[in-house]
Amino acid sequence: MALGELLREFTAAVETGNGARLAAVFTPDGIYHDTFYGEFQGTAAIKAMLEDYFWRDAEDFKWDMLDPVDDGRHGYARWLFSYRSKMKEAPGKRVVFEGIGHFNLRDGRIHHYGEVFDIGIAISQLDFAPERVAKIVARAGERLRARVKGSRHLPT
């Protein structure tokens, strides 16, 4: 499947809450790395992530993939994403943010999806207590530092 078609299936699955459809665009051992919920590997885990996490906390998803590019092995697209919160702190509130997705491709499907966006912009719209926002942002910083530990950016 070409990246454009994969992205249409990917976003349609998220928007409709169809976990099986989302998992079908991934390789059987594929990984979806979500900034909020973490890493989910394999068909069952990706299906559960969408149905048991995304749709537990939100509804009315809208996801536009913009300006996709790929070389057959790697794809990128900037995106605009929004949802209506079901969380107790901000029920019914529309949250919108933008980012970039990176797709490692294999055999016409997604092997790994990762994303980059400003988590502070996203969670600032949820009316969380300032202490909770600070804790979430600090954890995101810790995850980044752990990923680059030992590199020239953060030598050991």
Mean pLDDT: 96
Structural class: alpha+beta
The CA-CA distance between the termini, in Å, is 41 Å
- Give helix and strand order, one letter per element, not per position: HHEEHEEEEHH
Rg: 16 Å
Note the total helix count.
5
- Beta-strand portion reads 35-45%
The coarse overall form would be: globular
Largest sheet properties: 6 strands, mixed
Low-confidence stretches: none
Helix percentage range: 25-40%
- Strand order, main sheet: write it out: 2-1-6-5-4-3
* Total strands: 6
Short description, anyone?
It is built from five helices and six strands; from the N terminus they run H-H-E-E-H-E-E-E-E-H-H. The chain is of the alpha+beta class and 156 residues long.
Report what the structure shows.
The protein is α+β, with helices and mostly antiparallel strands and 156 residues long. 38% of the residues lie in helices and 38% in strands. It has a 6-stranded mixed sheet. The mean pLDDT is 96.
Task: Name some characteristics of this structure.
156 residues; alpha+beta; six-stranded mixed β-sheet
Topology diagram in text:
Layout: H1 3-16, H2 19-24, E1 26-34, E2 38-41, H3 43-57, E3 58-70, E4 74-85, E5 94-106, E6 109-117, H4 119-124, H5 130-148
Parallel strand pairs: 1-6
Antiparallel strand pairs: 1-2, 3-4, 4-5, 5-6
